[in-house]
Amino acid sequence: MKRKEFGQLLNLKEDYIPLRNKNRPGTPIFIQYITVHNTDNTDSGADALAHAKFVKDPGYYIYKEKKNWVSWHYTVDDKCVIKHLPINEVGWHSNREGNSKSIGIEICMHQGIDQEAANLRAARLIAALLYDLKLTLDRIVPHYKWTGKNCPSLLLDNGKPGSQWKNFISLVKQELSTIN
């Protein structure tokens, strides 16, 4: 498949976090990995557009009475991909090590989503990033790698990488093989 056609399958939109936001530090990143997450937001309407709004304003959640600023590079659902940060900037989607080395991708999982289509769209995005950045399949990691968290929850088996994660990596590999 030609590169342009492949890109159109993503239905990529850019909706950047404003430079003035606290969750966009502008710190340069040396990309070594792509970290995959699930949003863990099952609310109806919690699609990519809703998450784009969340990271732009205000971009934090409260945990134990403390503001936690979060950001990531892409949100993917069954209809589109939204880019929130340039890939040359750090996002706050993991721990310090994961943030400093990886692009963060959140896959939606809300009520009514076609999860298979969302996962396929995410696999296509990751394949395109691997191709463009000249990274190998072993550089795709679950959030679990950095923190031990059950994330991406829909792609792990009992909270750890297993057959579901291997199936997702196989899907990325299949999509990567179609780029020429």
**What is the quaternary state of this protein?**
single chain
What is the number of domains?
1
Structural class by helix and strand composition: alpha/beta
* Stretches with pLDDT under 50, minimum 5 residues: none
Q: Overall mean pLDDT score?
A: 93
Characterization of the model:
The protein has one domain: Lysozyme-like. The protein contains 6 helices and 8 strands, in the order H-E-E-H-E-E-E-E-H-E-H-E-H-H. The chain has helices at 3-10, 48-56, 96-101, 115-133, 144-147, 163-176, and strands spanning 12-14, 33-38, 60-63, 66-69, 74-76, 81-83, 102-107, 140-142. The chain has a 6-stranded mixed beta sheet with strand order 1-6-5-7-2-8, with helices on both faces. It has a two-stranded antiparallel sheet with strand order 3-4. A hairpin with a 4-residue loop joins strand 5 (74-76) and strand 6. Helix 4 crosses helix 6. It is globular, with a radius of gyration of 15 Å.
